[in-house]
Design goal:
The complex is a heterodimer of chains A (389) and B (277). Chain A has 389 residues and is mostly helical. Chain A has a single domain, classed as Formate dehydrogenase/DMSO reductase fold. Chain A has 14 helices and two strands. Chain A has helices at residues 10-36, 51-65, 67-74, 85-106, 115-118, 125-153, 161-184, 197-223, 230-261, 264-274, 288-306, 308-312, 314-339, 356-388; strands spanning 277-279, 282-284. Chain A is globular, with a radius of gyration of 21 Å. Chain B is an alpha+beta fold and 277 residues long. Chain B has one domain: Alpha-Beta Plaits (2-Layer Sandwich). Chain B has helices at 2-20, 41-44, 71-76, 80-91, 112-115, 126-129, 144-148, 175-179, 218-221, 228-232, 250-257; strands at residues 65-70, 107-111, 132-136, 154-156, 163-165, 186-187, 211-212, 239-243, 273-276. Chain B has a three-stranded mixed beta sheet. A two-stranded antiparallel ribbon of chain B has the order 2-3. In chain B, a hairpin with a 6-residue loop joins strand 4 (154-156) and strand 5 (163-165). Residues 1-25 and 29-59 of chain B have low confidence and may be disordered. The chains are: A mainly alpha (389), B alpha+beta (277). At the A-B interface, helix 5 and helix 6 of A face helix 5, helix 7, helix 8 and strand 6 of B.
Chain lengths: 389, 277
Amino acid sequence: MIEKTLKGKPAYWVWLAFLGMLMAIGAACYVRQYNFGLGMTGMSRDVSWGLYISQFTFLVGVAAGGVMLVLPYYIHNFKEFGRITILGEFLAIAAIVMCLMFIMADLGQPMRALNVVLHPSPRSMLFYDAIVLNGYLFLNVLCGWVILTAEKKQVKPPKWIYFFVYLSIPFAVSIHTVTAMLYCGLPGRHFWLSAIIAPRFLASAFAAGPALIIIACLVLKYVANFDAGRKAMNKLITIIIYAAILNMFFVGLEFFVGYYSNIPGHKHALQYLFFGLEHHGHMYNNLVPFMWAFVILAFGAIATLATKAARTNDFVLFLGCSALFLAFWLDKGIGFVLAGFVPTPLHEITEYVPTVNELGITVGVWATGFLVVTLLYKIAIGVEHEVEE
Amino acid sequence: MDKARRTFLKIAGASVVAGMAAPAVVKLTATPAFASGGHAAPAHAPAADAHGGGHAEEAPTGVRLGMVIDTRKLNAQDGLLDEAIAACVAAHNIPQFPEKKGEIKWIWKAPFENVFTDHSVHHGSKKVTDKDFPVLCNHCDDPPCVKACPTQATFKMASTGIVAMDFHRCIGCRFCMAACPYGARSFNWQDPRPYVKSFNPEFPTRMKGVVEKCNFCGERLALGQEPACVEACKGTNAIVFGDLNDPKSEIRAVLDKEFTIQRKPTLGTKPSVFYIV
């Protein structure tokens, strides 16, 4: 099936070349970082995780979001998802690849990464995160490939694969739950120390993941002559709206707990994110525009997706999904991780600004993810077209 | 291996006591009387290798090294705290970066409101608001950093209670830095060696990409010496170092007599560093 990636229209090759260029830039930036150390980034003693870990956190959600197709199709027998479930699985593969790359980019000693396996530490959440992420990657590769191969041969998938398909559902939930537990089990980081983190992560994942799948479907409709079907997409819209509303509700709950209890530790990070935090006469508010953009885009997207037009008009649907994806990226891919470091354990405030080199690596990893998803989708669509002929 | 090390520490400690009769040297083994009833301490201790200490539960037996910092005495003498910090920097080849961004700190000074964030400074006494206080790793009895580390590169030594680092195993994920509620950990954002002012061949320098922090001078204790900061304050009694589990130790006598506070005790980490304010 891999041969499907070798044939394409000129636009396909231009797109691949564009991604390849971004990847090359990212690789060059990484070589610089590898040689010099993580001092090439904007991170510091006070803000010790930055863009890499926040992208990782967000992308775990994108990977988990694929389950919103797998679950209705395999558990509830929602037939309309038949054509696009493979897209969810392949998107999960690309997202996990990006996650692992961001983790590697963030390590001070990447050559020692295998120490996590050589010296397993069952009390560390990172140990479990490594297990579930790699497990989920394996499950999606296995299920996606076996089912697509069966489709190509126009036979039913082997029965044993369903064990792994069903197993992938709790795994999808586990990857984002364990990722939340990286944060919410740490004493002294008040913003993260909240039991709502895991549910909130899942809610935003189940909105952002399917939103990206709709965007992909719309792109494929116009560039690859692949129609996912309106019924499937409209079902996804419903899923996205509910998940997105839940996420906003959970954010609201954080505000209630912080501001009604009036406990400074519970308010500081929220204050910093949304209004700016004053400290010794200086106003720290780097992230305020991002967070208000998140709020406006999120509610705008929910409203847009709830209109009748979104269910009939591709452009409106595209706008709504893009706004929603961007909104939740701002929330989890920017705000959540960075705000956890404000204030520092010694109640000082250090703001983080990524460096150009760091942005180069980040873009490079994203480009790699897009490349992986492009190639995988090319295979999937190629097989579907072949079967239809 | 652990047993050999414990024996070595015993011998090292004992030989110094016997040979030089140095009164201030810390005894690194628990008194037999304090070992749990009926069991010999070494047999009862978890059979952990050098990296397994993190799994040990809070043990009433064994040694738990701790520190009482008398900030009244420390601040009474101008520059004493700076000398203690300088002694640590020299002993551990701690790099001095010109910018805040890359800084590495094992022991440093900060205002009261930053060190004791749980205490109000509203109408605070000038005695505390005008002074600087030393900040270092608390060598918690239940250290969150040890729990967080995915490779056991940071671990609690069963023989001393010291929260130690293996610089060669650390992968530089900085999970421990996020986990530490005391901001005690530093990361080598670049090669630190060009920034080491005076090189001490007795202690390793670090490479880029690993985390480091105060180690309660484990390497000096093994030689029967006091921690560098304690030694720098010699004669003032500003820092008392010893076994918190030994009821006959000097540190316990100080703790019995004086009112002390710990940093963020509500988090349940059980810090081993106490302050007299």
